[in-house]
Amino acid sequence: xxxxxxxxxxxxxxxxxxxxxxxxxxxxxxxxxxxxxxxxxxxxxxxxxxxxxxxxxxxxxxxxxxxxxxxxxxxxxxxxxxxxxxxxxxxxxxxxxxxxxxxxxxxxxxxxxxx
Length: 115
Hints:
3 helices, Monooxygenase
């Protein structure tokens, strides 16, 4: 009987974590949409989002090792959004650096390092 109850608790924890991962993924996809519309990166650290993306990819291994399959599904949703955002951010940062260089006659403006 204890094993059955423990199994239910584990599944409930997995489902709750899935909800957090899913909601996080929805927010990340919204960030991708906003970045696509704005076509520039402002007020967000690329290094933070890269860390978040790598953490999501780590969870591809971690959650199955714990038997948390619902959490894995949520993580796939969120980590994919993180990866898309990072690729878009690098693309738009580079594109905007080139535009700034062209407008200023060879000067890169106030852009610092990418990360």
